[in-house]
Amino acid sequence: NAGVTQTPKFQVLKTGQSMTLQCAQDMNHEYMSWYRQDPGMGLRLIHYSVGAGITDQGEVPNGYNVSRSTTEDFPLRLLSAAPSQTSVYFCASSYTGISSYNSPLHFGNGTRLTVT
Amino acid sequence: GENVEQHPSTLSVQEGDSAVIKCTYSDSASNYFPWYKQELGKRPQLIIDIRSNVGEKKDQRIAVTLNKTAKHFSLHITETQPEDSAVYFCAAWGTALIFGKGTTLSVSS
Fold first, then answer.
1. Whole-number Å distance between alpha carbons of B63 and A107
2. How far, in Å, CA of A39 to CA of B48, rounded?
3. Interfacial residues of B (vs A; Cβ cutoff 8 Å)
4. What CA–CA distance (Å, rounded) separates B1 from B20?
5. DSSP letter at B16?
6. How far is CA B106 from CA B23, B43, B76, in A?
7. What pLDDT shows up at residue A99?
8. Which residues in chain B are closer than 8 Å to A109, comparing Cβ atoms?
9. For the segment B39-50, what is each residue's pLDDT rounded down to a tens digit?
């Protein structure tokens, strides 16, 4: 089991560029989510999904898109990168689903994104 | 939506002392409350969790208490050690898992 795999580990973008952060899990988890972590701000939820074909907005969704076409993958797209999106991004998954008991989140190792 | 407040933001203790971190939440429908520890440059790791039908849970030196009526929950670490130094996050799960802003715990020997 690889757990939750995020790629890339590091990325530098110029303002206005677009890119996709990849997240995959091999634990058959229904629930997947994306967080951004900034100093002093904790982990803020961007988007989440309770199963394939279902996504929902979190606390800070503006500037980001997600899709969930398979159970395993949950990519995060930055449409037009801005310096304010410089952050560390974590993908996390859980057995929790539409009809499942809430269970612990398993985190990936993170992607450090810098937008210049 | 859910809002989680966490205090204090920093906490310094001597080795062997106890440390307490407190959190409050706003959504009365939240039913799962995990605590995560994050070391510098690493991902958050679950250290203990509690569900809404339980008032207290203990795992060796770590304990968590939950007061559903008051909507607050706390992390207690006894006999702290230097390796307990890290950032600790509380979280509450209503429709999604929402985190507090974190507490930086420093344990000096």
1. 22
2. 23
3. 1, 6, 9, 31-32, 34, 42-46, 49, 51, 89, 91, 93, 95-102
4. 26
5. T
6. 19, 18, 14
7. 57
8. 42-43
9. 999 999 999 999
pLDDT in tens, B75-87: 999 999 999 999 9
- Cα(A35)–Cα(B70) distance, integer angstroms: 28
Site of tokens 């229904």:
A30
Residue of B nearest to A4 (CA): B43
Give the span between the Cα atoms of B99 and B44, in whole angstroms: 11
Mutation target to probe the A interface, by most A beta carbons within 10 A, among B43, B59, B87, B93 is B43
Q: Would the CB atoms of A104 and B98 count as touching at under 8 Å? A: no
User: How far apart are alpha carbons B84 and B79 in whole angstroms?
Assistant: 10
